[in-house]
Amino acid sequence: MIDDRSVLAVVPARGxxxxxxxxxLREVGGRSLxxxxxxxxxxxxxxxxxxxxxxxxxxxxxxxxxxxxxPFLRPEGISGDRxxxxxxxxxxxxxxxxxxxxRYEVVVMLQPTSPLRTPEQVSGTIRMLAKGNWxxxxxxxxxxxxxxxxxxxxxGGNGELGYYDPRxxxxxxxxxxxxxxxxxxxxxxxxxxxxxxxxxxxxxxxGAFVVEGKHISIDTEWDIALVEWxxxxxxxxxxx
Length: 240
Prior knowledge:
By secondary structure, the chain is α/β, with parallel strands linked by helices. Helix content is 29%, strand content 20%.
């Protein structure tokens, strides 16, 4: 609860990942990705209720063991790999409200694929949403200048190399580049009105909660290996 507004955490965790089968059940640092989300949720005082949105019975069982309720299974129509976050969150909000017979004013999406998140980062997005009266607040990370949009290249049909944005050809030093940011998947705090009335997870007024440092969003086996290394280094005090 924050400012008398109830908060629902939704953990989207479908079972059909193609890159890493049953990715959300994979362990890093001895804990599954789903279990790690549960660890964070328990440490966020603003969260009143947490549910998993999944189409897989095994993930639902693992979520419940981690303290995340599974009051419904995600319908087949919104379980494919081309379904957006909005459809998943809207269904989860409406289904949970129907089960609980209560209204939730804030929805927080916590994707299991960002296992390095902290409770403070999640709380920060919720508090920022309430304090600034935003429609939504997203955590973002600074993009390394080597990956700046003006440095991105394309390959034409004849194999010819070109700039994705023609302005990139005029850039000679990274100091000329304006800072840009990317979604890191750590936390998305969204008002009920933004979802229902605006039909979006990014409303007309979306706040940026900037998270410094390196953060991994798991898509590949390489990402899992990197997170394992980071956690191991943290365990021996080599990394913060």
